[in-house]
Amino acid sequence: MLRILPALLLVLLTGCQVDPYTHAPARGATDWYQAGFEDATAGAQKKNDETLAANFNDKKVDRQAYLRGYASGQEKICQPDLLYAWGLAGKIFPTGCDDLDTAPQLRQQWQKGMDEGVSASRLN
């Protein structure tokens, strides 16, 4: 009887194992404004609804909130001084800024920073 007790205890405890993937808490609603803001500040292009639904596993895409967030992110990132610094750092030009009317001037500032950054690296 003493030999069976540990084996029985082991079998009973194995049945109490929790699978972390099947009991994951349900995600809250997607913050589409934040998703758009993050896409813009990362320099990414606007995503279509199909891509957003797949990326966030959420079929109810709030396109208007996404676009408001994206526009807010563009305002933050598509600034001449910031893009000049991106160029100095060797970062690529954010494609989201190409949608703006001021894109040629912004790209010029970025290129100026890129040229100066390359020139400085050659001197070192």
Automatic annotation (TrEMBL):
It holds the Pfam family DUF2799. InterPro entries: DUF2799. This is DUF2799 domain-containing protein. It comes from Franconibacter daqui.
